[in-house]
Sequence to fold (462 residues):
Amino acid sequence: MKDYLNIANSPLLWISAFPIALLVVLQALIFSKRALSSAKYVGLSQNEAKKAFKVGAISAIGPAMGVFVVMLGLMSVIGGPLAWMRLSIIGAAPTELAAAGMAAKAMGKELTSPEYGIMEFANATWVMALNGSAWLLTTGLFSHKVEGLTNKISGGDPKKLGILMISAMCGAFGYLFGNELIKVLNKETRAFAISGISAAIAMLFLEKIAKKHPKLGEYNLGIAMIVGMAFAVLYLHLIV
Amino acid sequence: MENNDKAYEKNFTQPIIRYGRLTNLLGIFLSFIPALVMYFYYDTFPGVQNILKGWMLIASIYGIYAIVEPISYFPILGLPGTYMSFLAGNIGNMRVPCSAIAQEALGVSPGTKKAELVSTLGIAGSIITNIIIVTIAAVGGAALMNAFPPIIIEAFKYVSPAIFGAIFALYASKNYKYGIFSLVLVGIMLLGIKFLPTYIMIPVAVFGTVAFAFKTNSKSKK
Fold:
């Protein structure tokens, strides 16, 4: 193991990463408590509220496993504590990897170069914090202003808010999905498109089933994900 | 009804704004603790110039997203979801999908206050799961990697496209017109125009589809 990793994995760095992870958990708990105590005003029963939390928690297992795999790569460069902290908050794994890379590049190194050492690691701690702060600043300062704006546009009409939300979802995920779809054009990346397409088709079927058996609906994302991953791996091992 | 609206505002929306602002802004300070520990305890400081250079390099790619993403995702995440998602990260691959599935499982109609609470709870649940799994990864590390068969690790490389495909299908099935419009619009940008940066394509896809939805909706009413 490289010398700087002794410091990067030291107990003190674990302790320094802890407060923000705690903040994330605290915020989630405060918001949940507020939601539970306000449920009565909108006709949401306590059981339904608990179910919502549970469904969110279960549905996150698959996506979090995806984060897990990237995290192991990040840990080997910047150590456990910083990887743990950065993936508990703000960024997605690719952004954090890029930020660590740029911190090294500023000093004329690469994440993989043998000379990557303690100074580059220290730069990563600063650059990652500065980069992530931008999102915290804009959302911390302006979120409630955007809320006022959407209310003005929709006039507070739930039907219009519903259309706004569904069409925005189609737009955002149309982009994210489309970005994977075009990978079908390149043989090297085709498995990504296959995963996306098969999961999309699986979801359409699962939705039809869930209309008849609503109880199954909460596992739909998990099942569709497994279908997508399975087809990607099958393609790679049987066809390529 | 009027009273319930007021009570909701007072008991939910206002405290969310108060705590949301506080926690997200506090997060800025807390995220610098490791850097300060390196500086004060380990006497290691890369120099202001290197820090600024690294920051400029990364901000030139991602800086604009700090404005574009919160606005583009706001109609989807709502106010509490925005505070939580941008503090906890992993928005497209975890927060939004978990919020969507929670709303789907409870059968609430999108855009209502009930949906806002269900979404808040769904996202909160996903944050707790993420912290637990990421902590297991941090503690277990490479040893855990060896415990899984390589094919499973390989499969998880393909989890993001599967999530995107599934969530797209879920919402496109609510209104096929919006879904098709969005894919065509994205297709034109990705394959036709080609050179557009992502920070333009995301808001164009989101607000283009929203504009299309409102236009077709107002026409069908007449």
